[in-house]
Amino acid sequence: MSQINGMAERFHGRLGQILHSHHFNSAEDLQKTLQRLVWLYNHHVPQKALGHEAPAQTVKKTGG
């Protein structure tokens, strides 16, 4: 369970960095940025807790 918490903490840390370092021109701009961040994280960021696979790869393998 601590590995899952670590994944969430890293994601939230990265999210905080983006929110503090970027200027968003509108709520739509912020929403699109957040959607891209979540998509990239789920599809391209390998996680040690998931056997060094991205979350989407693990879900696809397990049929989830």
Domain count: the total is 1
- H/E series: HHH
β-sheet strand percentage = under 5%
For the sheet with most strands, the description reads:
none
- Give the integer mean of the pLDDT values: 87
Structural class by helix and strand composition: mainly alpha
**Uncertain segments:** none
Specify the helix fraction band: over 70%
User: What is Rg?
Assistant: 13 Å
Distance between the termini: 19 Å
Bulk shape:
globular
Number of helices: 3
- Seen as an oligomer or otherwise, the chain set is single chain
Number of strands: 0
Tell me about this structure.
This protein is mainly α and 64 residues long. The chain has one domain (2-62). The protein is 72% helix and 0% strand. It has 3 helices and no strands. The two termini are 19 Å apart. The model has no long low-confidence stretch (mean pLDDT 87). It holds the Pfam family rve_3.
Structure in a nutshell:
The protein is an all-alpha fold and 64 residues long. It has three helices and no strands.
